[in-house]
Structure formats: structure tokens, C-alpha cells
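FAQ: What does a ligand-bound record look like?

Like this one, built around zinc ion:
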Amino acid sequence: MSADTNSRQVKRLADYQAPDFFIETTDLTFELAADKTLVTAVLQFRRANPNALELRLDGQQLLLLAVHYNERLLQPSEYQCDAQQLRLSVTDDDFKLTIKTEICPQANTALEGLYFANGSFCTQCEAEGFRRITYYLDRPDVLSVFSTTIIADANQYPYLLSNGNKVADRLLAGGQRLVRWQDPFPKPCYLFALVAGDFELRQDQYTTKSGRVVELAFYVEKGQGNKALFALEALKRSMRWDEERFGLEYDLDTYMVVAVDFFNMGAMENKGLNVFNSKYVLVSNNTATDTDFFNVESIIGHEYFHNWTGNRVTCRDWFQLSLKEGLTVFRDQEFSRDMGSATVNRIHAVQVIRTAQFAEDASPMAHPIQPQQVMEMNNFYTVTVYDKGAEVIRMLHTLLGEDGFQAGMRLYVQRHDGQAVTCEHFVQAMQDANHYDLSAFRRWYQQSGTPELRVQRSYDVHKQQLTLTLRQHTPATADQATKLPLVLPIRYQLVDGERSESGLFVMQLQEESLVFTDVSATALPVLLEDFSAPVRLLHDYSEQELLRIAKAASNGFARWDALQSCWMLWLQQYIQQGGAFHLPEALFELYATLLNQPLPDKSLTAELLKVPDYGTFAESFPQIPVDSILAASAAFRLQISEHLSKALLQCYQQHSQAAAEYNEEAVGQRALKNRCLDYLSMHHGDSQTLLEQQYHTASGMTDKLAVLKASLHSEHPVFESLMQHFANEWQQDVLVLDKWFSLHAANPTEQVFDTIAALCQHPKFSWQNPNRVRALFHAFAMQNPGQFHRLDGRGYQLLTQTLLLLDPINPQVAARLVTPLLSWHRYDSERQILIKQALRQLLEKDGISNDLYEKVSKALAG
Ligand code: B3K
Ligand code: ZN
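The answer part, i.e. the structure of the complex:
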């Protein structure tokens, strides 16, 4: 990976210029071979800017063989070609270029562009991977009609796939086969896809609401077909849901999904031909947990929903990424909410914001949902763009209501179908359809940072009036010093004895008041219900008040949220008092009630019974007290397990008969039972039989994995032997084995270093496979805070050495893994020194990728 200073350029949104040329049609021919693939691109150009005399095409890691201008072969003196571009002077308004290039898919370990792994060819073009396939205008605002011809060995690659409809399929001389595809919808090149390989095919049909029949086809590894059936059903549910809720119908005659083992992220929404990480397609009760099932359904939905929000209406430039991602995450979250426990879904989405997204805002990589400048676009597929982006859409939904929001969606799609547009176009459509002034709201797109919303209460006894003074303030971020007030939709509920009043208060200014009249002195306002704005709420509620909400609020989210605030109070008290601190009796009473009489929503009950994890606790501190958090969490779990052992056991037993399948009731029962098991496992002596019994009689992977997690968490001696058993049972199934890698990497003892070293030599481990690398090292850096943050620096060094090795292989995956090192300023001075030293080692490495360079240099500059 050579990275000269030229390619370290920062691109700015402010510099956007419309394309000088368009490509009306793109006709590609691939002659596939793993070591040498020939690509012939026939591109029909049209000049858009009469003053533009030079055409500059993007291209990387390509061997240029020939260029024809119309029918004439160009001499090398007639164009310039360097490591980034092919440039030539053009005078005609309409012309054709035929470009022949050679690429080497099997050497492509970055998994961007066309690559060959595990016996198949596969592409990944978003964000800027198409330029590794041929010279092109690799930008999302150039929409072209694509045809693709694939020629390959007929035996080795029985399936030759690309976007759109298949229009030719024939055998050629020499055992080759030719297949041709045409995609009728103009699209940017980032949505192009090609897959060639030998798969097992699962097919079905879907009839759209207007009566069109769509062929559904899932291509998965041979022998794995049954594991694709859940995903196939999830696709049909997504298609139905999008018709019913958004009125959006699928547009092509076929919808294909290919599951591959080598993939940089979760999945990709290529037009008509989604490519998925096999982890998000292949599930069965035996091999996948309830969380895996949930993720499959949600990602299948997400990629399907992109067909309208992303593909039919696409982004003008990559600074607009949230236009498609924020909106599509909002849509997939709404879909998941309708498919399972709405409250728990919301809780999980909020946890992502409060941990990962707030952390990103506080880091050197802070950026608004519409970033203003970027070096490596792949670094901006972030929780900010995706998840905070979805919260911004959710706020619009809250402000406009479901009907208003859907009216805005209809106008957006009607106005911009077939176009490449900006976030501004989306907000404008919402505004116009509702006659609602959103000018102040637009600030959410440009301003980074986590707003703090401070609430003060004052009660006037004579007037029986409660006044809430609300003040908002967004602290400066690494990228932006000055912040302005934002529009905050604040959903509230006032709990006052029997009476309860709820509503929406739209805050616009830095300081505003909210007054409740005719209320008693003990009236309690619950603010920011359902997390109606992505802010940090600062209040002065007492433990008693919070517990009142946790016990009595009608809204499940409010109950959970009040408990979260309690945990933060208890953590602070633990830090002040040390081991002498005891959790209050009132918590045990509340927990006993929940264990004896779980709520109808058992998943929610399980959430309420949970001590927040390390990441959640950590995020509430400007400087993270690693050791105190770990000590406090362990003490809290122990106290709960000691005080409530009987109720825990009883609840465990009552919920141990869940049906094996994935449905809301069974998922809830398992979640509750396994929450109990987690506490029970702390009594090593009493729980051994329980753990072993559940492990050996488990009806599915959720229950099995829960035993391993509980025994790891509790450092139970049974952990080692069960892990051994697990490895023997699952050594042939890499997706299951990834869970085993991750459990090992989360081992909280120093032993973890030897274990990880040994696992890197495991026959199934590969530095080329992102799933394997993440299973081991993401788990170590994110789920093993005790060992990762060791004061001797061993944890930081393990990650650093890993990144030095990984960066030349796969910079995108390396740049994701570096995240925990970027926030060095959040730790004590000893750890700061160690982390900065690690960052310098990375920066000093010759030929460090742009991906890693952008993040590490920002971290060291701060
Ligand atoms: N659009 C893709 C992500 C592409 C990431 C490129 N580094 C998946 C998704 O969000 O649906
Ligand atoms: Zn997406």
C-alpha cells in the first residue's frame, strides 16, 4: 500500500463541483481469472460543462492495456496516467472510450474493488472501490445504465452474477461460459456488483402489492442452504413491511443475495444483487444466537430498504452519506420494532448512541452527520453518520408525526427519483410537504458534538406550579469550537399520583421554561421519553425519585432509563466509599418483584435486571476510571447474586422451558433465564451443575453461549473444560468458531495474551479474513477492558503490533480496530503516555495507509 503525500489530500464538501462529464452507458466485459482478470469498459460520455477540456478518470492499482477514443487506438503520448488518474484532452461533446485494463483479484486482500477469496470472485465498490476495477468517474452523482458481460470457466464458476436482468447465457469454446446482465435503472458505480462462484441456491417468490412476481434467490456456501431460510423469510417480511408502512414497492424482476465469508463489513446494497457477510445470512437454532437472528433480520431489512433510500434516490457526494444511511437505519429500526419487543429495540439503539456515538463525539474523529472534510471516505461509515443520523430522522418524525413524515417521504421520492441529491433536499421535502419551518432544525446536519440538556426544577407551593428550566449547551469538539443551540423535541410525561400528563415540548433556544400548573409538590416529570433527542440529560433527581419512576412509570423505556441514572449514582457512591458501599434495599426489592413477577415483556425484564456494562459506565466520565468501574461492576453483580439467590434460581427454573425457535416470547424467556444464570454463576460451588446441565442440554446456541459467557464473566473454573468441548464440537463451522475466538479474547486474566498468540496459529485463523480478525482483536480491545488497559502497556502493544501487521493487508479493517486507541485523553496520565507511544509507533511505520493515517494523525494532533 503505497501512500505518497499527494494521496494524503483532504477533500472538502465546500469544494463540491458538479461533474464536467456524464457517462450515459457503461458496458463492461470481465474475462475472469484469479491471477489476471481483463476488464474492458465501453463508456459513452456526454460533456456537461462546455468549458471542460480535460477528462480525468479515477483509477487505482490498475494495469492500463489500451484506450480507444471512439474507434481509434490512442498512443501513450495522447493521455497521462499515474497512480490515481487517467487524463486526456477531449473536444467532442459526445464520445466513446474503450478502456482495457488488467487486475489481479487474488492479490487484492483489501477486499475493495474486485477480489478473489475462498474460491469466488466478489466486488465491493462503495465508497470508492470501482476505481480499482476500471478507470471511471468514481463519484455517486454520475449515474449510468450498466450492462455487464462475464466470461469465466464454466465448471469452476457455475454462477456468474451481476446487477439487473440476465439477458444472455451461453457456453463458449474452451470450457468458458458467457453471461450477460442488463440493469435498466441508471446507477452510480458504487452500486455495481459482480459475483462468480459455485454456490447452493435457495429460491422463492414474492408478489408485490401491485401483483408483480419477484424471483428471490439466495446464493450461499454449498451445504448451508437451510441456514438461509430465515433470511429469505426476513426478506419477504421486509418487502411487505416497506409496502405497508412506506408505500414502497420493489422494482426489478429478481432480488439476489450472495453470502460470502470474506467481507469488510455487514452487507452491501448493490442494485438487485446484495452481497452479505455470511454471518448476517446463515443462521440456525444450533449455530446462531437470538442476537444473530435479530441482526440477520435487521440487516436484510436495511439493505432491502436501501433500494429506495440509497439506490433509486442516491447521494450527490459522499459528504451526504447520512442521506441514505441515517434514513435507512431509521427505517430498519422501525422495522425491527414492529417485528419484536419495541421497548428493548429502542433501548439497544439508545445504548449505541450513549456509548459508541457519544464516545466518537468526544474523540479526535468527531464530525457532524454531514462531515465537512474527509481524507479516506471509508473512515466515515460511522456511528455518527449512521446512528446519530437515524436519530436526526427520528426527531423529524417526532416533530411531524407519522402522517406528516410519510407525506414528506412521498414528496422526497417523487421529486428525486433517479437523482443524486443532498441532505438539504431531504429536509426541504419534509418542510414543503408539511409547511413546517425546518430552517433551525438543519443545524443538526452541520454541528457535531453531544448537547447537554440541564434541567432545574422549582415548585411554587401557593400556585401549585412546577417550573422546569431547561438549558442546552454543546461542548466544543475536536473539529468544531463554536456551537449553537439546536432544536430539541422533548417528549415528557408528568407522573403525579394517579394523574399523568404527557406531551411534546419543542425547545429552540439556549434556555427555556416548561411550566406545569395544578400539580402536587411530589409531581415527577419524566423527560426525553424514548430518548426523543440525542442529548445528555443532566438532572438532579434523587435515588428515591428515580426508583419511583423505575417502579411506576407506564413507559418501559422510562423505567429502564431511570434505573440507568440510578446506576450512575451508585457507581459514584462506590467510587467515593470504596468496598464499603452497598446497593440500596429498594433496588433488591424492585429486582425481587421483577424476578417473581416478570413483566409481560420478558426481554425488557431482563434489561431492567442488568448492571450496565463497562462501556456504558465509562461514557459518563470525562476521564475514565477503568479500575474503579471494573471493581464496582463486579461488586454490584456479587451483591445482587448474594441478596437474591433464591429468587434468581426460581426465576431461572421458571423460564427454562422456552421453545427452541426464534420468536418474541421464547427470546424473552431465554434473555431472562440467562440473566439469572449470569448472576447465579458467581457462586462457583452451587452453579457448576447448573452451568454444565444447561450447556449440555441446550436447545440452541443462545443457551450454550450464555453458559460460556456467564462462566467467563464469573471466572468460573468450568469455563476451560466447556470451551474445550465447544471447540471440538464446532471446529468445522467458522461462524460458530468466531464466537469461541471472541470468548477467549475476552478472558479477563493475563493468560489472554498467550491464548491469543496461540489462536493466531489456529488452522482456521486467517489475517486475510476480517471476521476472524475482528472475532479475536475487536473482542480483545472492546470486551476486555481489564487486560486491554493494563498499566504495563501489554494490551495496547498487542493491538499496535496487530495493526502494523494488518494495515498492509486490509487498511479498512485496521482503521476500524484502531478506534479504542484514539481516545487516549480519556485516561489517566500513565495510560496516556502508553497509548500515545503506541500511536506514534503506528504513524512512524513506512507506507501506513490513508485509512489509519487519517485517524492516528488526528489523535496525535489533539
Ligand atoms: N452501504 C454499505 C456500507 C459500505 C461501507 C463502505 N466502506 C452497507 C450499508 O450501510 O448498508
Ligand atoms: Zn446502509
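Follow-up question: can I read anything off the structure? Yes, for example: Residues 383-416 form the longest helix (34 residues).
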